[in-house]
Amino acid sequence: MNNQPILNKYWSSVCRHIDPYVPGEQPKGTKLIKLNTNESPYPPSPRVLEAIRNAASEDLRRYPDPFSDELRKAAADYYGIGLKQIFVGNGSDEILAFCYLAFFNPGERILFPDITYSFYPVYSKLFGIPYKEVALTRDFYVPIREFMTDNHGIIIPNPNAPTGRFLDTDSLLTMVNYNLDCGKVIIVDEAYIDFGGDSLISFINRFPNLLIVHTLSKSRSLAGLRIGLAFGSEGLIEGLFRIKNSFNSYPLDRLAIAGAAEAFRDREYFEETRGKIIRTREWIEKELAKIGFIVIPSKANFLFVAHKNVSAADISSKLREREIYVRHFKKPRIDNYLRISVGSDEEMEFLLKNLREILGAYKG
Known about the structure:
Aspartate Aminotransferase, domain 1, Aspartate Aminotransferase, domain 2, alpha/beta, 4-stranded antiparallel sheet, 5-stranded mixed sheet
């Protein structure tokens, strides 16, 4: 699809001037190795698939539960929190959009990192929220002290994407506490938290200004169902429900609710598959370093890497010719880095084989 929009005289001024989010490429084909969108290399739990099949019944003629109580109850049991402390939506992206409407005011500036999930500035412009991008350090750490300043809200991804860097709990809570008396909401986007980090969900009772956002797309292999969750005080969750019920009363369908609830119940499968991904990540990190890559330590299901001698653009292009897709961000400060999703061991072996061949051609 052509990325250059065709200007239409019927568009609103917002539509004319918005710079939309560009999703990761979804190439077609059965033989390609797809390591560009941080999906799980493993299928959903068999119990999840069975729950979806059972939900595909004549009840589909009825609207789903607008509160998704089955899913919220399963998540509440899993995390040991109350039902009223959980909100669910059509992917974490939708929940983030609701957050902008629920907690941020037009004309009041919010903060988020300069190298991070690129939907944050898109939503800011869409909803008329001014923002400041706080520069990461040279080695891609989030400078937490820079967020302890005048603001009207903060979004912090942890682990960060696309870098994979993780912030420790004490640093984050220091920032949350700083903003507590100011009445500013701190949103911690924990899309990748299950791959080695410590979630802040256990602190939502202590900090009523703290909202945690999760997705089931990564660690629970459900990118195709579009399931997001938010965890916070009852006041914050009620705010999200007010926006949801003014926008879309039924964000999750019956199949999604049933499948997602079962994903929380099948703890054994979850621990097995995320454990495999973590072990593969730790192994591939060492192997990439052996062939000349600088690898940023990651707590996510991807690695952020740059080769010492060959440009990221060249490597990405050569891999694509071999039907191996990785993510190359053509942006300042990171245009020589690649983000590589952690696939299965077989996929990563194939990647390494091809990288060695590609890099070998530059030695001559």
